[in-house]
Each structure stands twice: as structure tokens, then as C-alpha cells.
Design brief:
Porin; 3-stranded antiparallel beta sheet
């Protein structure tokens, strides 16, 4: 191809997205189900999470992400376990007659819309998780996601220049590029992901894999090669009760996508009297984020984070913002 394509994805995103194709979240410690389906249904009831993220402001045409997550813990009938040693002549108290089930299930759905320069991705997935409480201290969870991702390229938003004279705009004539934009520049592929979580008292470790099918199941005949890659995530964390009103949560997360190097981030979140929370995220050699928010009541939680770039892009980037709202009922 005798021309080159200058878009944001090949400039700023060449550094930030080389670690992953899946949208990044600074509030991953508060919303782990966005990356690992094993986390849905951890709490009883139904949850709805919506949010948006704006990254690397200052370049123009920056990455923007909108996402939503729905999860519902299914009701399971409690099984009566009568004790034969009890005197059948007396009434069996409720606490002795029934024992809560140690197995629970959850279902949900997830959507995301990701825009970065001339490229875009829309994903919709169904979620399932099960949780097995081995004893009071130990719980094992497993989850899966299945859905579709539509990738697109908008040639009208791309800036194309002649490689021989970059000051001149592209007027056509490159057969390879002309054929590329003349064909279909969007396609859909199946997405499969799995995740597990092991919790022991206040400690947990979790792992997840996403986009396992890569481009093996595609729909459409796009001339663009979006080259979907497998993603792997490992996270571990610990909750500390500092006092009766202060709780501390520390979580480390590692992400890998071939052929990019391993990326890592650490989050520390403090919760005050179950109403306010604040914390910090360090993304290795990339950014630092400050997180804050509050629980409006027992149902609503509002979270906000601001990112500060600490690598070479700091001279051109004004950081980013992320806003989330969770409703539980």
C-alpha cells in the first residue's frame, strides 16, 4: 500500500491498546464482573450497572466507551433437613428445620460500545455464574459469557495521506486501499469467555479468559481484518477491616494479550461507614487514577475516577474520566 493511514488508533492507541482490545476500566476493583463473569450474583438480588469512559483527552477523536451490565441472582428453594434425633413430638424450630442452600446461580447480560478514531466495536453478551459455598470460609465461583461483537471501520473518519508527500491529501489511486474501503468494513464474530473465582474469608483470587474463539466464528465478508485476540486476566485481593467504620480493599490485576507484554495495575479503595469510598489505581508505567464516590442510599452507588498519564503521552494527553452508576434492588 503506497499510502499510510493516520488515525488515532495508530498514534495514541498504539501505546495504550497494545495490552488489550477489550475496553479498559479504572474502577475494576468496584466492578469486577465487567471482566470476569464469575463475579455476577455474588450479592443477593438484582443489579444494574451503567457507565462511560473517556480516555487520553487532548488528542482529538479519543477512545470513548459506554457499557452496561445486568445481573440477577436466581432464587433457590431451601431444602428441609429434619433432624431424626429430635423428638418428633415437639415442634421443630425454623432454624433447626431448614438449612440454607450452599449453591446459587445468577444470570445476566452485558453490552459495550467502544469508539476509537475510525474504529468501533459493539458487543453484547449473555452471562451465567454459579457459586458453591464449601464452608463458611471457602467459596468457589465459576462463570461464562457468550455473545457477539461487531467491529467496524469508518473510512470517512480516517485521515489518509500520500506517503511520498504527506502534505497532500489522498485523492485515490492506491488500488489496495481503494479496494479496502470499497468492500465491507465491518463484521461480527462470536465471543466466548469464562472465569473462576476462589474466595477464602477476606482473600480472593480470580482468573478469566475472553474472546476465546477469536475470528474462528465470523459473520459477514468484510475486507477488513480486525484480528480479534484472546485476552487473559488474573486478579487477587484482600479486604481489611481497619475499624468499625473503615474498610480497606486492595486488588492487583494482571492482563495479557499476545503478542503484547504483560500489563498490571494495583487498586486500593477505602470505604467509610459504608457511605463514602475513595482510592487510587496505579497502572504500571502508564497512568495513575483517583477514585471517589458515595452510596446515595441502600440502592444507588455513584462512582467517578480521573486518570493522569505518567508516560511519554503526558505532554499531549489530559488524562481521562470514568463515571459509573449502580442500582441494586
Amino acid at each position: 500500500m503506497r499510502i499510510y493511514l493516520i488515525t488515532f488508533v495508530f498514534f495514541g492507541l498504539s501505546l495504550s491498546l497494545k495490552a488489550q482490545q477489550i475496553p479498559q476500566n479504572s474502577q475494576f476493583a468496584l466492578n469486577p464482573a465487567l471482566l470476569n463473569p464469575a463475579f455476577i450474583g455474588i450479592e443477593e438480588g438484582t443489579e444494574i450497572l451503567v457507565g462511560g469512559r473517556w480516555q487520553m483527552l487532548g488528542f482529538g477523536d479519543e477512545p470513548r466507551t459506554a457499557f452496561g451490565l445486568y445481573s440477577k441472582r436466581l432464587k433457590t428453594k431451601e431444602k428441609e433437613l429434619p433432624n431424626p434425633a429430635l423428638n418428633i413430638g415437639r415442634e421443630i424450630p425454623e432454624t433447626e428445620k431448614k438449612e440454607k442452600t450452599k449453591f446459587s446461580q445468577a444470570v445476566g447480560g452485558q453490552i459495550s460500545l467502544d469508539k476509537y478514531g475510525a474504529f468501533g466495536a459493539f458487543a453484547i453478551n449473555g452471562l451465567y455464574a454459579c457459586h458453591v459455598q464449601i464452608n463458611r470460609a471457602f467459596t468457589f465461583s465459576g462463570g461464562a459469557k457468550l455473545g457477539l461483537t461487531n467491529n467496524s471501520f469508518d473510512a470517512s473518519r480516517a485521515i489518509v495521506s500520500n506517503i511520498l508527500d504527506p502534505s497532500q491529501s489522498y485523492q485515490g489511486g492506491d488500488a489496495e486501499y481503494d479496494q479496502f474501503i470499497a468492500g465491507r468494513t465491518n463484521n461480527s464474530n462470536m465471543n466466548l469467555g469464562v472465569g473462576i473465582k476462589i474466595k477464602y474469608n477476606d482473600f480472593f483470587i480470580a482468573a478469566a479468559a475472553d474472546q476465546l474463539t477469536e475470528n474462528s466464528v465470523e459473520f459477514g465478508n468484510s475486507s477488513a481484518n480486525f484480528e480479534t485476540k484472546k485476552h487473559f486476566f488474573v486478579s487477587t485481593g484482600y479486604n481489611i477491616n481497619v475499624s468499625d467504620v473503615i474498610k480497606l480493599k486492595a486488588i492487583a490485576q494482571f492482563k495479557k494479550m499476545q503478542p503484547a507484554p504483560l500489563s498490571s495495575e494495583l487498586a486500593v479503595i477505602a470505604e467509610f461507614d459504608e457511605n463514602l469510598f475513595a482510592g487510587m489505581v496505579y497502572r504500571h508505567k502508564a497512568a495513575v487514577a483517583l477514585i471517589g464516590g458515595f452510596n446515595i442510599n441502600d440502592k444507588f452507588r455513584l462512582g467517578y475516577s480521573i486518570d493522569f498519564t505518567i508516560n511519554k503521552l503526558n505532554n499531549a494527553s489530559n488524562g481521562g474520566h470514568e463515571l459509573t452508576l449502580k442500582y441494586r434492588f
